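Example 3.2
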Amino acid sequence: MKKKGKLRKFLKVLGPGLITGASDDDPSGIATYSQVGAAYGLGLLWMSLFTFPMMAALQGMCARIGLVTSQGLTNTLKNHYPKLILYLMLIFSVPAIILNIGADIAGMGAVTNLLFPSIPAFAFSFVFTVIMMAVIIAYPYQKIAGILKWFCLSILLYLIVPFIIKVNWKEVLVATIVPHIELNKDFIEMVVAILGTTISPYLFFWQATMEAEDVEHKKKHIIVNKRILRDMTADVNTGMFASNLVMLFIILTTGVVLHNAGIKDVNTVEQAAKALEPLAGKFSYIFFALGVVGTGFLAIPVLAGSLSYMLAESFGWPEGLDKKFHEAKPFYIVIIFALVIGLLINILGISPMKALLYTAILYGITSPVMIAVVLHIGNNKKIMNNFTNSRLSNILGMITFIVMTMAAIALIYFQFQ
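Structure, written as C-alpha cells:
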C-alpha cells in the first residue's frame, strides 16, 4: 500500500515538465535522431547521456523562474532588462519556431501520405493545420495534451525493437558511455542538430509560462518553498529523462536497423519508418505515422503557444491557452498566423526530413544566446530573491553554454573548409 501511495503521489507531481519532455520528441526530434542513427550507427549514442543533465538543468532553471516570478520568461525580460535584449530574443527565436512548425506540419503530411499515396502530402498538412487551429482555440491545452499523449505511445516501439533483434549490448554500453568524436562538417552538423533539438529555446519559454500558469490555477498566492521546488525538480527531471531515453532508443534502433543495412542517409519518412519493421512488419509505417502525427499534435501547440506567449507578453496583450478566443484575440491570431506561415513553408519543396534536421541545427546555433539570458535571470537576486541557481545548476548551465557555443562555432568554421 505504501508503494502504491508513493507512486500515486509521484504521478500527481508530474505536469508541465513531463509535457515539455514529451513535446521535445516532436517530428523534428524523431527525424534528427533517425538521421543520426542511420549515418553514424551507435557513434553518437553517448549524446543521449551527455544532454540529459544539461537539458534538466536548463529546464529546471526556467521552471524555477516561472514558479518564483509567476511570470513567463518574456515578462521577466521585459520588466528587468533593457528592451534591446527582449528584441534580440524575439529576432533569434521567432524565425526558428516558425520554421519548426512548418517542418513538423510537413513531416505529419508526409508520413500520412505514406499510408494514402493517392492523396497529396500537402492536403494532409492542410487538414492537420485546420484541425489544430480549431482544437487550440476551442479547448485548453492541458485537455488536448491529456488525450494526444496516447498517440505518442507508438514511438515507444523504438524501445522494444532492440530487444527482439540481434544487438551487441556490450558495444551499446561502450558507445553510450565513451564519446566518439570526429572533426568534420557532417559530424559536427549532427552534434549541433542533436543539441538543438533537445535544448531548444522555445522549451525554455514554454516551461516558465506553464509553471507560472500551473501556480495560478492551483493557488493565487502560493508561497514557494522547498517542497514545491522539490516537486518541480522531480517533474522536470522525469520529463527530461523520458525525452532522452526515447532519443537513445531511436538512435539505437535506427543505428542497428538502418545503418547496418547500408541506409546511411534518411531522406524520407519511409526510410525512417523502416527501423520499426523488425517488430511491426508491414505495419511499421502505420505505427511510425501514428507516432509522428501524435507528437506533431502535441508539439505544434507548444511551439505556436510559446511564440504567442512571447509576443503577447512583449506587447502586453491578454494571453493564455485556457482563455476563450474573444478574451485573447491577438494571442490566438498569432497562433493562427504561425500555423498558416508554417503550412505555406511546405510550398518551398524542401524534403520534410531535411527541413526537420535544418530546424534542429538552427536551434543549435541560436540557443547559446537564450542560455546566457536564462543563466543571468536565474542568478539575479532582484528577480529570484532567495531562490537563485544552485552551484550545480550554474556549473551545468555554463557547461551547456560553452558546449553549444563551441559546437555552433565549429559548425560555422567547417562550412568554409
